[in-house]
């Protein structure tokens, strides 16, 4: 490891007095803390290395892979931006992600409301269909979806990503919304009904604002999935003008490009939005992705 | 009392969602089972060939090799991610800033695009300029240097490391949540009875979170099918198909050599296999206790 590890460790804050000598317990907690720090640094290191390497020259990249750059080449970023046509890829990724997000949130919240607050025939069947959908491995649909979208002529349009993204994210969105809305007391709607609001009024004025925390979880999860998706973009978008960010990066992976500093700079530029989202919403991301993994 | 107004609201609330979901998730699956009966290049006429595609899938040793590689990833997940996450969860239980920082660091790779992860690890493993071989050299272990990704005998194992590195996070969060759910009275009772350390771990903590561990194992199975992106970026399924997975086998057979009928048959097989594996694992988990 390059950085010296002198992180102050948290004192053992065990309130209960357990067996064992205090000295030994203190040493043990220090050791565990040190081991954890090393583990965390090893996990973070590849990302750190990415940002440091993005500022190096190609010579430095292989002669001193662990060192800092002798000169910070900020121009690598602007070069990478041009070479990989990242401006266009950013715009594409942005539009696809935002449009899919809106569709997912609106449909997920509305269907979640219906499934949580109304009793009707076929409700179990509908829930069952969504449940079944979550068992289908996403990659097994690459070929059939390609054929389907080819037939209806939407390959190589934004819709070729927006529709499948939304379709695959909807079950998780609905289940998170239903679970959250089920916890609202009945009085919420009764009050609104007395005010004379119809179902739409209740939905927009009561359910949506109340369900905001659940929608935030759904939104963060969906954002990360859409922004990072590779396989759908790879198969459904062959027009270079429509490439999303992960696709534009994969150009560097094929081995034709040996310009390491540019590859690193391009990747650094691509991960910045997700890192920012993660830094702000850590807790929600961790809880949401875990719940998403369990359900999906 | 389902009035007309209520009924139409239910319909408007559900039909668009169901429509999109069924059209883009369920229909393709059913269709691909059907296309699997044809010899078809993606364009031009389709020739009905009965069960030939399906028979060929089952007889292709490469398909079984891909399946075996998928199972290897399941094994790596069950014996890699789960124990690592369990161990970490035991020492990261408290909610102090230090524990939170470590948890967040461990989870971080999950938010990166798999393309980025793949390229980074590609550089780490690179035989000439890779960080790993550089590190081995500087530690005087030059003889351990390898062509990590281009030697068919080690490539599959080399792929497992980033998969484990990537996926420890969610399991860690699951286990921490489960451990924090153990009522403190039980802990106190054990304390009074004189149970400490490992005794407490094996007779109280582990049995109390056993259900969560089961869920984690089922997750490893369904998650193994998702490694396509990483494989595509790092090795493309090579060298000599040593890292081929079911999904990359399907991709290569469909989009590299334009056998859409055959690719459809493979997709159908993947759906069947994964449903069997998930159902089987849940059955096993239920009957064990």
From TrEMBL, chain A:
Q: Where, subcellularly, is it found?
A: Cell membrane
One GO cellular component term of this record is: plasma membrane
One GO term under biological process is: transmembrane transport
In this chain the ABC transmembrane type-1 domain maps to 90-281
Query: Pfam families per the record?
Result: BPD_transp_1
Q: What UniProt keywords are attached to this protein's entry? A: Cell membrane, Membrane, Transmembrane, Transmembrane helix, Transport
Q: How does it sit in the membrane?
A: Multi-pass membrane protein
Q: Any stretches that span the bilayer, and where are they?
A: 31-52, 94-115, 124-147, 159-181, 202-227, 262-281
What SUPFAM superfamilies does the record tag this protein with? MetI-like
Family, similarity comment: Belongs to the binding-protein-dependent transport system permease family.
Please report the name of this protein according to its UniProt entry: ABC transporter permease protein YurM
Q: Origin organism of this chain?
A: Paenibacillus radicis (ex Gao et al. 2016)
UniProtKB/TrEMBL annotation, chain B:
**Location (main, coarse):** membrane
Membrane topology reported for the UniProt record: Multi-pass membrane protein
What InterPro entries does the record tag this protein with? MetI-like, MetI-like_sf, UgpAE/MalFG_permease
Q: Does the keyword Cell membrane apply?
A: yes
Pfam families assigned: BPD_transp_1
Please cite one Gene Ontology biological process associated with this protein.
transmembrane transport
**Keyword set, alphabetical order:** Cell membrane, Membrane, Transmembrane, Transmembrane helix, Transport
Q: Name one GO cellular component term.
A: plasma membrane
Q: Where are the transmembrane segments?
A: 12-37, 71-93, 105-125, 154-179, 215-235, 255-279
Q: Is the keyword Membrane in the record?
A: yes
Q: Which residues form the ABC transmembrane type-1 domain?
A: 67-281
Organism superkingdom: Bacteria
Q: Where in the cell is it found?
A: Cell membrane
Family the UniProt entry places it in: Belongs to the binding-protein-dependent transport system permease family.
Tell me the protein's name. Sugar ABC transporter permease
